[in-house]
Amino acid sequence: MNNEYEFLKVQNSLRDKINLSDRLDKSEIKTVAGVDLAYWRNENQEEYAVCCIVVIDYNTHEIIEKNQYSGKIEVPYVSGFLAFRELPLVLKTVEKSEVKPDIYMFDGNGYLHPRNMGIATHASFYLDTPSIGVAKTYFRVNNTDYTEPDSSAGSFTDIVVDGKTYGRALRTHDNVKPVFVSAGNYITLDTATEITLKLIDKESHIPIPTRLADLETHEARRILTGR
User: What is the pLDDT of residues 2-25, one digit of tens each?
Assistant: First the structure.
């Protein structure tokens, strides 16, 4: 499937099934998985990527499991349809996992998407697990800009598009650039925000699971490409 019209049909069919309520009690969360991908091209300019998933203990932040899967990317990049490129590798990586995490956290968007179908939301229907999107850069929806939150850690501003809240700009450390949090599925934005803040440490303004996954993808890409 590499037709934009077909992609659009899939997104619209899933959109009505998004559930932005908490499936899991916060007190029951024990594990969170961070998901990220890194890309490269070979000498023939064919595109490849590696997906890394790192599962950590929600309370101690210790690493429980790491897995990766790499392969050729068959779908060209089209803005708004990133999940169709990444999901096959994500699901192959999940197949290698022995631990089923309570939450998946993606380095990307969830509900903060023109059709509310960022990778965190789209993937959740296959993972059947609550998910969160935490993006490092802002993906503008319908030409809507975000308002900078106050400079103190924990401050946030809601991103409202046509009267509907799509996500949040969240300051995780004092005086650092915000991250952009959105519910993926089976979770509220408030809970997604609380979980994100709990998974911040002094090392980075990015939550621990996706930061670790990001580091893993860069190392995996270096090994796989030899450069």
Answer: 588 899 999 999 999 999 999 999
Share of the chain above pLDDT 90, in %: 93
Instruction: Provide the 10 A C-beta neighbour count for residue 64.
Output: 16
Q: Which residues of 127-165 are buried (b: 16+ CB within 10 A; e: fewer)?
A: bebbbbbbbeebbebeeeebeebeeebeebeebebeeee
Asked if CATH classification 2.30.42.60 holds for the domain at 27-136+180-225, the reply, yes or no, is: no
Start-end of H helices in the chain: 4-15, 82-95, 119-127, 189-198, 208-225
Token representation of residue 218: 């860069």
Where along the chain do its domains lie? 27-136+180-225
**Residue 38 pairs with which residues in a beta bridge?**
50
